Amino acid sequence: MQNAIEFTIPAFSRSGLAHKPQHAQLKLQNRSQQQHRLKHRPSTAAASLRTDQEERLHGSSASSQQNEDELRQARGGLASISGKQHVAVLRGSKVSTIALRERERPLAEYMTLPASQYSVLDAKQIERIDDSTFRCYVGGLRFLGFTIDPVLTVSVDVTDRGPTVRLLSTKLEGSPAVEAANDKFSATMVNKVCWGSLADPGLLELKSDTAIQVALEVPGWFRVIPVEAIERTGSSVMQRILNRMVPRFLKQLQADYELWASGDDSRKPIAAGELSEGSLISDS
Fold first, then answer.
1. Host domain of residue 143
2. Is the dihedral of CA 197, 203, 204, 209 positive or negative?
3. Coil, helix or strand for 165?
4. Disulfide-capable partner of 261 in 49, 79, 105, 140 (CB 3.0 to 4.6 Å)?
5. Residue 100 and residue 254 in contact, taking contact as beta carbons nearer than 8 Å
6. Burial class (CB within 10 angstroms; exposed 0-12, middle 13-18, buried 19+) of 36
7. Residues 6+ apart with CB under 8 A from 148
8. Record's Pfam families (predicted)?
């Protein structure tokens, strides 16, 4: 084109207690406990190794689980579909990373730009609807003998840890039979993008963690095919889409960052149809 849950445990000072210990044995025990804590306390230098950027990256190591949690929460939107018989649930996920060097303007600033300042990256496949909403044209895919062109509408939410892309709606374009399926499926998708440091002090890392789930009511004339076979085939197609598009998305993001960091604020697209360039993704 985003998080991590932080828990804070309050510290209680002894001076806040109503009664001080009176027995020497208890005082010695408290002193011993303090010495033990001091002995085993991590050094300031060691603690400082987890920089803000590292926390962003390591915090996102749980993003796959968070994506799954978001998908579970969104399943309420699939209830009208998944409550029926002959429903196939298709799933796919992809984590991809890319290393880059920080340029004249910091990556942290780029990653927290408001969505209103985003480049659409690929002029042929992404268009802006408003400041934080975009329409994405995935390109043709072949499934169960049909050629399908999915059109996704997504929202972008930006925090200090990076952007999160969420699916708002999906429309299937193609033959009349394909378009008739638009009221027989529902989908959810989450893509969290973050950044962090690498062992090489000159390098930073961009990371994209994407998960998608589709519930599809199987048409009557396809019910001779076991639902499990449809799920297996459909999930394979979706996985191939993610395997191709997520790394390309990161490469486009890297190119856009380098353009922006050089001082170019035009936010012009850096590609035209390359996001899903190539032959149709097929279930065969």
1. 52-282
2. negative
3. strand
4. 105
5. yes
6. exposed
7. 140, 141, 142, 172, 173, 174, 178
8. DUF1997 (PF09366)
* Residue position matching structure tokens 């000072």: 13
Non-local (6+) Cβ contacts of 98 within 8 A are: 205, 206, 247, 250, 251, 253, 254
- Hey, CA dihedral for 219, 225, 228, 234, is it positive or negative? negative
Q: Are 57 and 197 in contact, with CB atoms under 8 Å apart?
A: yes
Residue 22 domain-assigned?
no
40 in a structural domain: no
Report how far residue 39's alpha carbon sits from residue 111's, in angstroms, rounded to the nearest whole number. 40
C-beta of residue 84 within 8 angstroms of C-beta of residue 210: no
Q: What is the pLDDT along the chain (284 residues), one digit of tens a residue?
A: 433 323 233 333 333 333 444 443 434 444 445 454 544 444 443 334 344 555 555 444 555 566 566 655 544 445 445 555 789 999 999 999 999 999 999 999 999 999 999 999 988 899 999 999 999 998 888 887 888 999 999 999 999 889 999 999 999 999 898 898 898 999 999 999 999 999 998 899 999 999 999 999 988 777 888 999 999 999 999 999 999 999 999 999 999 999 999 999 899 988 887 666 654 455 55
- Examine residue 4 and state whether it is found in any structural domain, yes or no: no
Residue 223: inside a domain, yes or no?
yes
- Total domains, the chain: 1
